[in-house]
């Protein structure tokens, strides 16, 4: 195994999925860096939460603290200039005629991965880790396994590299994501995800529910709440 394959870059938004993926990467790779994106998202509160969340993750394990390296926050505001969606505009969340919710931001995850790959190439990080998931409610086409596999091929051809894209949540549901977090970091990580991560599409940070902060009614909150309830019921 090459040195680069022991060095990972995690797409880290500050949400439940990316935090679980960061814990997954820290349990496997010798050096882990994080990357986040400011793209004019409606729930920009996640960007506010990122620094303190990273600091608290360091506090969960001396080994994780040693492995966790630099954080990179990049401006991708051009995404909000290219399309109007419920993720970037103050509009109601609803289904579209193409069968996708209007929270789908065309090209977002593809651009995230390409930019992350460019940074990884420069910093000799051989693994990209993302929280994309096919079992999520949305069916976003850029979260599908085929899309990510095709993107990995294209990136490596275009950069003459051998980057690996890892998606540890691809085939599990939200209840299993909570269970994975518990296996990786115990109750402390589960509690950290509940209290300090942000998932709500509307950016609500006020009320604290059993599963965390959020409006409780947007698709992201409903999915997170349902998964947490199933996780707790099975305990």
UniProtKB/TrEMBL annotation:
Cofactors needed by this protein, per the record, are: Zn(2+)
Q: Which domain of life is it from?
A: Bacteria
Cofactor descriptive note: Binds 1 zinc ion per subunit.
Protein's UniProt keywords contain Ligase: yes
Keyword tags: ATP-binding, Ligase, Metal-binding, Nucleotide-binding, Queuosine biosynthesis, Zinc
Which residues does the record give as Zn(2+) binding sites? Answer: 200, 215, 218, 221
Which PANTHER family does the UniProt record give?
7-CYANO-7-DEAZAGUANINE SYNTHASE
Q: What does this protein do?
A: Catalyzes the ATP-dependent conversion of 7-carboxy-7-deazaguanine (CDG) to 7-cyano-7-deazaguanine (preQ(0)).
- Which family would the database say this protein is a member of? Belongs to the QueC family.
Organism per entry:
Undibacterium amnicola
**NCBIfam families per the UniProt record, alphabetical:** 7-cyano-7-deazaguanine synthase QueC (TIGR00364)
Which pathway does the database say it acts in?
Answer: Purine metabolism; 7-cyano-7-deazaguanine biosynthesis
E.C. number(s) listed in UniProt = 6.3.4.20
Q: Where does ATP bind?
A: 12-22
* Protein known as: 7-cyano-7-deazaguanine synthase
A Pfam short name:
QueC
Q: Could you tell me what reaction this enzyme catalyses? A: 7-carboxy-7-carbaguanine + NH4(+) + 2 ATP = 7-cyano-7-carbaguanine + 2 AMP + 2 diphosphate + 2 H(+)
């Amino acid at each position: 195994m090459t040195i680069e394959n022991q060095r990972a870059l995690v797409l880290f938004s500050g949400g439940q999925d990316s935090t679980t993926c960061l814990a997954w990467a820290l349990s496997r790779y010798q050096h882990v860096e994080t990357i986040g994106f400011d793209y004019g998202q409606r729930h920009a509160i996640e960007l506010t939460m990122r620094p303190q969340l990273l600091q608290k993750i360091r506090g969960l394990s001396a080994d994780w603290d040693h492995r966790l390296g630099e954080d990179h926050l990049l401006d991708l505001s051009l995404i909000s200039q290219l399309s109007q969606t419920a993720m970037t505009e103050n509009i109601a969340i609803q289904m579209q005629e193409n069968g996708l919710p209007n929270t789908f931001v065309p090209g977002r995850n593809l651009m995230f991965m390409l930019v992350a790959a460019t940074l990884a190439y420069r910093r000799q990080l051989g693994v990209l880790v993302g929280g994309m998931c096919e079992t999520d409610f949305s069916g976003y086409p850029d979260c599908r396994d085929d899309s990510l596999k095709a993107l990995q091929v294209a990136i490596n051809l275009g950069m003459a590299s051998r980057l690996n894209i890892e998606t540890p949540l691809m085939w599990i549901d939200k209840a299993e994501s909570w269970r994975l977090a518990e296996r990786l970091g115990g109750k402390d990580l589960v509690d950290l995800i509940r209290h300090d991560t942000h998932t709500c599409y509307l950016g609500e940070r006020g009320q604290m529910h059993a599963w965390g902060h959020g409006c409780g009614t947007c698709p992201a909150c409903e999915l997170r709440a349902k998964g947490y309830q199933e996780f707790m019921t099975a305990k």
